[in-house]
Design goal:
The complex is a heterodimer of chains A (622) and B (282). Chain A is α+β, with helices and mostly antiparallel strands. Chain A is 23% helix and 36% strand. By secondary structure, chain B is an alpha+beta fold. Helix content of chain B is 60%, strand content 12%. The N terminus of chain B is likely disordered. The chains are: A alpha+beta (622), B alpha+beta (282). Chains A and B meet through helix 5 of A and helix 4, helix 6, helix 7, helix 8 and helix 10 of B.
Chain lengths: 622, 282
Amino acid sequence: MSMSRRILVAAFGIIAGAQFAHADSPSVTAVLNSSEASLGETVRLEIRITGVRGADAPEQIMVDGLEIRRTGTSQRIEMNNLNLTSSVVYDYTVLPLRAGRFTIPPQTIRVGNNSLRSPALTLNVADSSGRSSGARSGRDTQAAGANNLVFAELIVPSKTAYVGEIVPVQIRMGFDPRVRPRLIEPPEITGQGFTAQKLQQSAENTETISGRIYEVVTYKTAIAAARAGKFEIGPVKAKAQVVVPRRQSAPRTRPRSPFDLLDQDDPFSDPFFSNPFSQLGERREVEIKSEPVALEVKPLPPNAPPSFSGAIGNFTMTTEAKPKTVQVGDPITVTNTISGRGNFDRVNAPVIEDERGWHKYPPSSKFKQDDEVGLSGTKAFETVLSPNEKKQGLPLLAFSYFDPVKEQYVTLHSEPIPINVEGGAAVASSAGGAPPGSATPATAARATSPAPTANKPQDILYQLTELPTKAESFAPIYTRNVFWVAQVFPLLALIGLAGWKIRRARIDNREAQRVAALQHEATDLMHKLHRNDVSPREYYAEASRVVRVKAALASGNRRIDPNMVDVETAAETFKLNSDSRDRLRRLFEQSDEWQYSGAHNGPGRVSAENRREVLELIENLR
Amino acid sequence: MNFFAVIPSEVEESRGATRGQFHGVRRLRFASLGMTGNRTLTILFSLALGIATVAYAQSDPDFTKANQEYAQGHFKEAISGYEALVRAGQWSANLFYDLGNAYFRTGDFGHAILNYERALALERHHPEATANLQIARDEARALELQQSWPERYLQFASVNQYSIAAAIGFWLAIFAVVVLIFARRRSATVITALIFCLLVCAVSIYAVYTLERGGKGDALAIVTGKDVQARLATADTANSVLALPPGSEVKILSTRGDWIYAALPNTLRGWIPAKDAQQVRL
């Protein structure tokens, strides 16, 4: 650390110590939260000793007709403009035992070697009907005892406010954990002349107050006064069920302290609390009630600016716009973000100071709160503006609010935002124009529609006087019968094609079978012709048959029947020369001779030379 | 006018045979008795065509009268005439276009835009309806539904054209399959054609689905009421989602009683009174 920084820290410490020492001049104050009370109603007494960190205050204050007991001690250290102030607060609960006017005498508070005296206080206690100032019924006693085991506290930090100003309010409800409380009616702030927001439970913790342990639930809300005047906020009322020991059957003979539920000095000395299961408890419904708080509500000053919509608090505003380059008639989304602390329900969108040449759509808004009750946060407004003519910048936007600290109206203006509006003259606005209430947020789809331009016709086109001869239908074609009926034609064509293909396949199959049979026959006959044990008649018959079969096979698509093949047909099919043709003719003649002339006069066997000649002829037929 | 061109001559023929004592169908029956089969068929066809022509011809005077009312500035009477034709089912793009013009003249931009949209639903390329629709939208500051990018790209053809393309692609693919089954050798050309046809069929079916289910599909409706608010729930006191100027487009998602649940131009959804919006397709 540098020397200069050390000097700075030391100086700060000296100043702070001096300030603290300077603040250490003790003083004492004593206040009652109410100077009026009815019988059976408790009053809170607060004795505050400022400028000390510890003091000696009495545990009990003796006043005839009042029972005053210390119920809590707290210490506070506050820093204000580098002034450290320490104070000790002693809380007392005052229970009137009878009606009348009582004076709480000055109390001596010992602070070190010094003594301080609190001021005297006066309390008026009114009698309440149906109750005696002396002994109370057992039920009342139980209730009072139960009430003592629970408490409610209404905390309003400000004593003055303006009409409509949001005032944060805190409600603390404490329960002795041993009574096993169950809240059956949530706390409610009673009173008139103000509106309260929904209660939000913000914390739950355990505190020790006057040596007792309480489970304290804290609720937060905010109120806003509807009119000027002096109001009483509260009391806060709630109902809870608690478990208390069963009443003793013996009648009471003496008035009893509310802190002495069980005829003993301390209600918690009852064996029930030490062991709840050793003795049955009784669930009792109790009403919890806080003290009311006074609030003075002042009216707002006159001469509010035109853009004031009732916003009270402290706000800042930012403005954005996009797109920056548009055509005449195109939408521009302007986003105003108002942040701060105040009554956001009365924060409306900033107003346009000069709307000429602009078409404005109602804005949409979105609020994001930063705390539990919506006292601080950010409210964003999206407004769609549409230029009706050429413009060079967005119009100025104004937002006004009332600052309760400065006690004056404040008007915020948007920064000038340059934009470029292209296009020609203004778009003519018809008599109908845009209807009121027509709105679009920034996300609305105008993009699909071409921007109106200067040369856009301002009037609709002419009437058409021709009607088609046939009515048209909105139904898509695939839902109409004609579409599906039309599918019959390709279906029929498909069936025809398939049938034709199948038939062709079958025909091809038959031809193949025929060719195979002929080839098989030709092969068999050739085998026989190579044998020697065949008579000439059979030999020449089979030889001529082979020639016919070969000719039929060679005919191809002409599909010549083998039985119909003669010499000329075969010679033509094989394109034989004259020599081969003669030899083929002789073969057929010999076959016929052997076939039709009965027993042949020649040799009984075909000579080898003839066989070779025939085979040579047949094998050359290709 | 075939009915009047053909039938009288036949009537004259039959009139000669029957001395003109018969009337209507009986005349035709007599006329056909002495004719060849071809001539009878011709007459029957002409009769059917003639009846159809007469049926549509009957609407012409009404249409002409409505046009005359419009020309004279009697727009409400013109609307009544056009609406009567619409109720009679004589739907055509020109009729809805003229009806839209009449509504425009009365300042009812919601109905004007609705009828222009109907004209375009019947005839996609109706230049007059397209132009006037744009003018009406600008006047009403109507909001349009955002279209998805497939919708925008597929809009170069209509649903009917895609339907026909899908059918043609399907059948050609089937034919190609049959050819391939019976062919001795698999032809690469046929296989390529088969794949192409299947692609055409699939793309066309997808286009039909996308366009029909999209913002401009069969669920498209137009806000015709004034000061219409789309709300979060089916109650007039429910929070507003969006203020809808007349002529704004919404897409009907479901209907519950007197309310319709619709997709809004700002991609949100909300409930609209059913009486304040009308579907484009009848």
